[in-house]
Structure formats: C-alpha cells, structure tokens
Amino acid sequence: MTELIMIKYGELTTKKDNRKEFIKILTQNIERLIKEEYEIIKDNSRMYIKCKNVNKISKKLQKIFGIHGISIVHKVNNNYEEVLNNALNIMDKSKKTFKVITKRADKNFEISSMEYSKKIGGLILKNSNYKVDVHNPDIILNIEIRKEGTYIYTDELKGIGGYPVGVQGKGLLMLSGGIDSPVAGYLTMKRGVNIECLYFESPPHTSEEAKNKVKELASILNEYSGKVKLHVVPFTKIQEAIYKNCPDNYMITIMRRMMYRISEKYAKKIKAKIIINGESIGQVASQTLESMVCINEVTNMPIIRPVATYDKLEIIDIAKKINTYETSILPYEDCCTIFVPKHPVIKPELEKAKEYEKKFDYEKLINECISNIETITDFKENKFEDLL
Ligand code: ATP
Ligand code: MG
Q1: Which of 19, 65, 145, 261 is most open to solvent, judged by the fewest CB atoms within 10 Å of its CB?
Q2: Whose CA is nearest to atom 5 of ligand 1?
Q3: Same domain, residue pair 183 and 153
C-alpha cells in the first residue's frame, strides 16, 4: 500500500483546450509549497503527490487556486482482499454506517462500478459491524479503479477552487491599506491572474506604519502566488499640487484621475494587461456612477472591480476569511484620507475636472513619480505556515 495525496482539478477539466497549460502551472504552484522530497504523478483529471508529510502538505494545498478537492488516498493492487483490508483500515471506527462509491477509470475492468460497490460493500458487512446507509452514511468509501492500481479514500478536504494563478497573465492591483483592495486582489488571483501591487504614498503626510501595513497585506496576498511585488509610488508632489491648484470639491476626483493615469502607465511598463481595484459602487463620493465615468475617462485599460457589487459586510467576510481584515483595520492614514475635502463632488463633470487639472503640469509630475517608484519583494514567507 502507498499513501498519496490526490488532487481533483474541478473547473479545470471543463477547459479542454487549455488543460495542459493549466495543469503545468498548477504543478509549478504546488511545487513552490513543498519543501521536502516528492513525486507528482498527473493525468487529465487527477494529480497524485507522493511525499512524506501527507497531512501537512494536504493542508497547504487548501491555499492553492485551481484545486477543488484534496484527499489522502491509499493505493493498493487491484484485488478484492487488499481493497477490503485497506478499506477497513481507513474507515473511522467510531462511525456506524457507510456507503461505497466506485469509479472505474479502467473501463476494461471485469465488472461494472455498481457491481463492484456491491461486492466490496458485502465484504465489509461480513467482516465488520458497519451497516449500509445509502442515503445518509457516516462514511463514504470512495474507490477508484485505474490501470495502475486501486485508490481508496474516505475524506475529502475542500480546495479553494478557481484557476491556477498565472494562467491568465498579469494584472496591476491598486492596493491601499483599506479592507476592499486586498479582497479585490484575492478574488482576481482566484481567476488565475498574477498580480503586482501599486501603492500611492504621500510622506510625510502618510507614515511608515501605513506603508508597512500595505506591505503586510501584499505579503498575505503573496502566499497565493509567490510572485507578488509591491511598487510604492511617491505621490506627495502630485497631491500637494492638486491641493494648491484645484477647488476643494474636485480634489478627490482629480487625485483619482492621477492615480489611474499612473497605474495605466506603470501597468504597461510591467506588462500587466489590466488594472484591479477595490472600488465598490456608491461606497464613497468617488465611487458613484458619475464619478466612475469621470475618473475612468483617463484610461482605456480594462479596470476590474471585483467587489463593485458587494456590500461592505460581504467584503469584510472575505477579508476575515483570507486573513487581511485585522491588518486592514489598523488605524494609519492613507493618502486618500489626507487633504479630504468636507464636501467632495458626488456628480463630477468631466469638463470641469479637465479644466482644473490643466492648472499644473501633471505629465511631468507623473513621469517623475514613475521613475521614482520603489519595488518591494522581501515578504515574509512564514505567514502561510501560521494559517495552518
Ligand atoms: P476602504 O476599505 O476603507 O474602503 P479602500 O482601500 O477601498 O478602503 P477607497 O477610498 O474606497 O479605499 O479607494 C478605492 C480603491 O482605490 C481602493 O480599493 C484601492 O484599489 C484604490 N486606492 C485607494 N487609495 C489607494 C492608495 N493609496 N494606493 C493604491 N490604491 C489606492
Ligand atoms: Mg473602499
């Protein structure tokens, strides 16, 4: 008998054309997490990992996108006695009822799946005190018959689903210290997008603590891909220029137009195809539909807003689940919260925004910002282990 981890791909199997690429990237993402000797055996619908610490590694796999189910399986030879003995061995002794579900990948096998389940079920009844319950069993005994052997397992851990990070190329996440943008990043990674993060800071109006908080959030997101980078934009001069030259009520609109311009330019530079942010319809003055129209006007790049339609409480639920919430609520000032006007315009007019921002040479300031971006990649790795 060999003990292995079996992975079910789920959604991947429906994507016939890309399947090879998906499996390749999923394998790379899994390999990143295994620090011991291992062997990976793959086919079109399953992956098996041979390693020593099956329990620990199967828990780690619960953080990998593209995996829908994780089970510790026993691989035995295709004979009834071995299957029976191993089944009895892995079935929980404290439970009373069971049901057998058989799948045959090897269609040439001598009997049908139904007959096989019946036969093994009968043998278990004869050799133990378990009773059969086909509707509501305490134990489901899964048996998969394949050419190379028979795989037996009872429990399945749920994977987090989605697509392997990397199958969709790269996106640039506008990452603030708030609750929404890390959740937006997580949801986008779940669809297979690799992300790098852009954070606008305005020292000395924003603190080193605020930056560390964003770094911490980036490091939590990094656990899902290992490829996250945090690019820090020195935004002070632009904010001060807006403060000096533009009317109070348009300051946020214009600041966000600047953020989008910088994000687009930088996204192109790092070859990211989309921009992602944590905007949510109606949440604040700059996220009304009118504001979105006026702010979005500066770029043609697709802007993905994964939480656009979520209630704040729904976003908070995800933030708690992915462990970013506690960091997000730390009370440090963000560049959006300084220079905040009392009455930001709720329905900004594009022509006015354009006119006000002409009052300073923002192109020059934007280029200066971009050439002074600092990139951080030294994230702590242990976060992941902490979650286990
Ligand atoms: P909160 O969770 O408190 O709403 P937030 O981060 O969502 O915080 P908003 O003012 O709602 O803040 O900003 C909307 C979006 O704009 C953010 O989700 C984020 O994607 C982007 N953004 C805001 N401020 C910054 C910043 N300083 N750096 C990078 N992106 C930012
Ligand atoms: Mg928000």
Answers
A1: 19
A2: 178
A3: no
Instruction: Indicate which atom in ligand 1 lies nearest the CA of residue 276.
Output: 20
Q: Which of 134, 161, 188 is the last residue of a domain?
A: 161
Yes or no: say if 276 and 174 are a contact pair by the CB < 8 Å rule: yes
236 C-beta closer than 6 A to ligand 1: no
Low-confidence ranges of the chain (pLDDT < 70): 10-16, 335-338, 381-388
Query: Which residue CA neighbors atom 22 of ligand 1 most closely?
Result: 176
- Three state DSSP letters for 31-95: HHHCCCCEEEEECCCEEEEEECCHHHHHHHHHHCCCEEEEEEEEEECCCHHHHHHHHHHHCCCCC
Residue among 377, 51, 36, 63 nearest 218 (CA): 377
For ligand 2, an ion, list residues with CB under 5 A: 180
Q: Looking at ligand 1, which atom is closest to the CA of residue 277?
A: 20
Do residues 242 and 255 touch, judged by C-beta distance below 8 A? Answer: yes
pLDDT computed for residue 31 by the predictor: 94
In the DSSP assignment, the letter for residue 360 is S
Q: Is the CB of 144 under 6 A from ligand 1?
A: no
- Spacing, Cα 180 to ligand 1 middle (Å): 7
Q: What is the pLDDT of residue 24?
A: 92
Q: Give residue-wise pLDDT tens across range 321-379.
A: 999 999 999 987 776 666 777 788 999 999 999 999 999 999 999 999 999 999 999 98
The finding on whether 362 has its CB within 6 A of some atom of ligand 1 is: no
Q: How far apart are CA 272 and CA 173, in angstroms?
A: 10
Residue the block writes with tokens 């220079």: 339
Does the CB atom of residue 319 touch ligand 1 within 6 A? no
State in Å: Cα 276 to ligand 1 middle.
11
pTM of the model: 0.90
Q: Which domain holds residue 109?
A: 2-161
Tell me how far apart the alpha carbons of residues 290 and 303 are, in angstroms, rounded to a whole number. Answer: 16
Q: Three-state SS for 161? A: strand
Looking at the structure of the chain, the number of domains it has is: 2
